[in-house]
Design goal:
Blueprint: H1 2-11, H2 16-42, E1 44-51, H3 54-70, E2 74-81, H4 83-95, E3 102-106, H5 110-115, E4 119-120, H6 129-135, E5 144-145, E6 148-149, E7 152-164, H7 165-170, H8 180-190, E8 192-193, E9 199-205, H9 213-224, H10 242-256, H11 269-274, E10 278-284, H12 288-293, E11 299-302, E12 313-323, H13 328-341, H14 344-354, E13 357-358, H15 361-364, H16 367-370, H17 376-381, E14 385-386, H18 393-410, H19 414-434
Parallel strand pairs: 1-2, 1-3, 9-10, 12-14
Antiparallel strand pairs: 3-12, 4-12, 5-6, 7-10, 7-11, 7-12, 7-13, 8-9
Helix pairs in contact: 1-2, 3-14, 9-10, 9-18, 10-18, 18-19
Length: 435
């Protein structure tokens, strides 16, 4: 209609200038229609899935808006589910040829996702191995299997020690504990019980289950006491030794001997710390946003305590991977979005929004981030952190939970508890590598 009205207006005019104007007008109108039709013809919608966590959802929404502004022919549908349902939702949807084109997965789930055909290798023409291995932290090599990378992270994680400044001051303590022995002494001084002996304030809190305790045990305590969690080739479980027994004893003594913690106190350690009822608590940088929102909580963060002049840490990450469902134009669009998710810009936005650490040293190790009072301890911890290469993360996590419970609840010795869980874990390894 607009074109017809314009043509009538021009036809009422006279002269060569008007003829030129008429041609120019028609060119602009039909040129715009051509461009619009070209975009429509090439438009593609893809789905991105992750688990539901407020700050992570907010970060992805920001990144989607940025990406779509620069790529108007690609639309991204963002879907998220409660953590407890997430893996099941992904497995069912992809197996049915539905669901995400780009999916977020914990790096420890890699072999499970590969074995069940849920994801596909990253295209080498978009993600060259030289580029990945030159520009990312070395821990991302955990996503490389059989010569292919199966995903890449926007952010990585390490552990650090959260401490309640007010409770430390009340207990006459100044600054965080520097060593493992200091941490025990701090925990004792920070623990409170009522007249009946009931725990009302934990000196040190741990979270089993999906918490960070099993990582702290394997990659920090076992190494501090002179051992290694696994053999160099990754096929043998090796923490069933004197070092492992010392590490498990150190961990369980907080509850069994020192009485400075209690599994299930105020539901979870993170909840108790947020409520101001815990002096010391180990967790990842993703917990910062929760504690910043906790009313009246005055906390600081330090690097994990050392031992005999050494420091160890655990690193992990959630990766983004192309689902096996993504094909053709959808695969190309998903790979393009993944390229943006692993850019320097995206990593800084993720750090500022979620608190998880950039996966590239070029972003993480700038002075502003390294010296940040909250993020800094986690970033500095990446220098001496190790990412456990899991065969299957869930049952391996449960091994440490079971060993802890055997010692604390059943009075089994650390040596015997480890012998039982390592035997079971090794069977898992043998089955995987044997097949």
């Amino acid at each position: 209609f607009q074109a017809e009205d314009g043509i009538r207006d021009v036809e009422r005019s006279r002269g060569l200038g008007d003829v030129y104007k008429r041609q120019l007008y028609l060119f602009s109108i039909f040129g715009s229609l051509f461009i619009f039709s070209s975009i429509s013809a090439n438009a593609v919608e893809i789905e991105y899935w992750q688990y539901e966590y407020g700050a992570r959802v907010e970060a992805i929404d920001k990144l989607i808006a940025n990406f779509q502004s620069a790529n108007p022919d690609i639309t991204i549908k963002h879907t998220y589910f409660p953590y407890a349902d997430y893996r099941k939702k992904v497995a069912i949807a992809v197996a049915a040829g539905d669901g995400p084109d780009l999916v977020q997965l914990y790096y420890g789930w890699l072999n499970d996702y590969r074995d069940t055909g849920l994801i596909q290798p990253l295209p080498k023409d978009v993600f060259s191995h030289d580029d990945i291995e030159s520009n990312f932290f070395k821990m991302v090599s955990a996503m490389k299997v059989d010569g292919d990378y199966w995903g890449l992270p926007t952010a990585v994680r390490s552990l650090a020690l959260f401490y309640n400044n007010d409770l430390l001051k009340e207990a006459g303590l100044s600054g965080p504990p520097e060593t493992l022995d200091d941490m025990v002494n701090y925990a004792k001084k920070l623990t409170k019980r009522d007249g009946s002996g009931n725990l009302i304030q934990e000196g040190m809190a741990f979270d089993g289950g999906i918490g960070q305790t099993h990582h702290f045990f394997r990659e920090v305590l076992v190494r501090h006491f002179g051992g290694k969690p696994f053999s160099d080739d990754g096929q043998k479980v090796t923490y069933n030794d004197a070092a492992g027994a010392k590490a498990l004893k150190y961990l369980t003594d907080f509850e069994k001997t020192h009485k400075t913690t209690q599994n299930g106190f105020m539901n979870r350690g993170q909840d108790a710390f947020a409520a101001g009822k815990v002096g010391l608590y180990i967790d990842g940088s993703f917990r910062i946003s929760k504690f910043k929102k906790a009313e009246g909580l005055n906390f600081s963060i330090s690097e994990l305590p050392g031992h005999n002049g050494t420091r160890y840490n655990f690193s992990s990450f959630w990766a983004n991977a192309l689902s096996s469902k993504a094909e053709g134009a959808k695969k190309d669009a998903a790979a393009k979005f993944l390229k943006y998710l692993t850019s320097d810009e995206a990593m800084q936005i993720w750090l500022d929004t979620v608190g998880e650490l950039p996966a590239k040293p070029s972003v993480a190790l700038v002075d502003e981030n390294k010296q940040h009072p909250l993020y800094g301890p986690f970033i500095r911890g990446l220098d001496y952190a190790t990412a456990t290469t899991f065969v299957s993360e869930k049952p391996q996590r449960q091994s440490i939970v079971d060993a802890y419970d055997m010692v604390v609840l059943q009075d089994v010795s650390p040596e015997d508890a480890l012998a039982k869980v390592v035997k079971k874990e090794q069977e898992l390894f043998d089955d995987f590598f044997g097949n």
